[in-house]
Amino acid sequence: MVQKTWTFESPNFGDGARNGWTMRSWTKDVYQHQIFEPQGMTIEASVLEDRGGEQVVVKFALAPMLSRDMAEFDLMLLWAINVLQENTGVTGVYASHATREEYVSAVTLDWQIFPPGTVDEVVARLLGSSNPTNAADFEKHVRERVQLFEGFEPIAYIRGQGGFGSYFGAQFADDLVVFENLRYGNAVYLLYQDWDEASQRSRLDLLRDQDAHFDRVLHTNGWQDRLIALLHDKLFERGLHRRRKGYRSKSRGQ
Questions:
Q1: pTM of the predicted structure, to 2 decimals
Q2: pLDDT digit string (tens) for 228-241?
Q3: Where exactly are the structural domains of the chain?
C-alpha cells in the first residue's frame, strides 16, 4: 500500500457564503492499481476431429501468438490463460510447432487396460516407462491405491496414455470405474454409465452437469473410509458382494 492525499475545500461552520471556505487535505493508505490497455487478442476456433454423434474436438487458439522472448512474457501468459478460461472454460499451453496429432492426443483421454495381477505387477504396468515430473511420490501413491483396490477384486486396471499418464484407476464392473489424477487432482471419481465418455470431460464440466452419473470423494481426512464404503455400496447394488478386508485408514492409525 502507498499513501495518497486528497485536497478539497470545505465550508466554514457549514456555510461557505457567510463564513468562507478552508482548503483541507486528507491522507490515507491505499492499494496501488495497474491499468492495462486492451491487447487486441482474438479467439480462433477450429474443429480438429469430428468423431460423429456429439463428440467433436475443438481447438481454441488465442492470437497473436506469444513468444518466450517478448517483454513481460509471464504476465502476458497469465493474461492469455485468463482470457481463454473466461471465454471458453478451458485452458492449455502448447508449443507453436505442435502438430495436429500431438494436440488431439493431449486433449482426449484414451485408456490403456491392464488385467489384474499381483500388486507389484499392477504397479509396474501403471507406472510404465515414465513418471509425471510434478507428481510427488507418484509410485508410493499408486501402490497405496492398488492395495486399496485389490480387496474389491477389480476386473481390470486402467491408465491414461501419453500426456494423461497421471490418470489411473480400476474397473470393477462394466458400469463402475474408480479413477483419479495424481498430478493435479484432489479427489477420487467413481464413474458409472458411459464412464469412458465421462472420463474425457473436464472436472469443471462434470461438476456443472447435474445429470452426470458419478460420485466425487475429496481427499480430506478419512477419504479412504468414505471411498471404501461408497465402493462397497455400489458393488452391492450390482450384486457383486465383495468385502474389503485388511485395510484401515491412516486417519485412524496403523
A1: 0.53
A2: 998 898 888 888 76
A3: 1-33, 42-107, 111-252
